[in-house]
Amino acid sequence: MILMHDITRDGNPVLRQVAKPLTFPLSDEYKKLADEMMQYLIDSQDPKIAEKHQLRAGVGLAAPQVGKSIQMAALLVPNDKGEIIFKEVFVNPKILSESVRKACLAEGEGCLSVDKDIEGYVPRPDKLKIRYYTVDGEEKTIRLKDYPAIVASHEIDHLNGHLFYDRINKENPFSLAEDTIVIS
Ligand code: SB7
Ligand code: NI
């Protein structure tokens, strides 16, 4: 089971590295890692289990956050009713195209690897077209928008060595481009 003490924290160089692509078939070790990363998200979103193991809730988890510099990230995105609207493990994800229009979360973002709260809007593309491989090696091309797109962008950023606060405007953390939508 992945626990909070397994999560790499800001300052660990692995979070700033470009993660390496994987080849298929995945090793048993990497398949197990994918399962464990998804299980962390499931457990972290269950209030009882999260409380018991002191897990911080997460909607995504990228392999560098558990110390592995590989192109793998798990996403488990609920809607405001708590229903899961997107569940997947991305292997070797690539952004094929993105909207010019940006979106950001009204409450800003946090990260399991960043212990302090950092305020400010985190503008990201509102729409993404992504190609990735599943754990079983199936190639998929999908389009995401709004919240699931924001989560996917946050996770793909991790695979490229970026953290959410890199995208916050340093002069004015709450400044927004004309057409950026704020999601609440
Ligand atoms: C807010 C939070 C996340 C993604 C997008 C907006 C995920 C937080 C958990 N993680 O640190 C995953 O990398
Ligand atoms: Ni993160």
TrEMBL record:
Active-site residues, record numbering mapped to chain: 155
Superkingdom of this protein's organism: Bacteria
Pfam families membership: Pep_deformylase
Catalyses which reaction(s): N-terminal N-formyl-L-methionyl-[peptide] + H2O = N-terminal L-methionyl-[peptide] + formate
EC code: 3.5.1.88
Known cofactor(s): Fe(2+)
Binding residues annotated for Fe cation, in chain numbering: 111, 154, 158
Keyword Metal-binding carried by entry: yes
GO BP: translation
Record-linked PANTHER family: PEPTIDE DEFORMYLASE, PEPTIDE DEFORMYLASE 2
Protein name per the record: Peptide deformylase
Organism (species): Lactobacillus taiwanensis
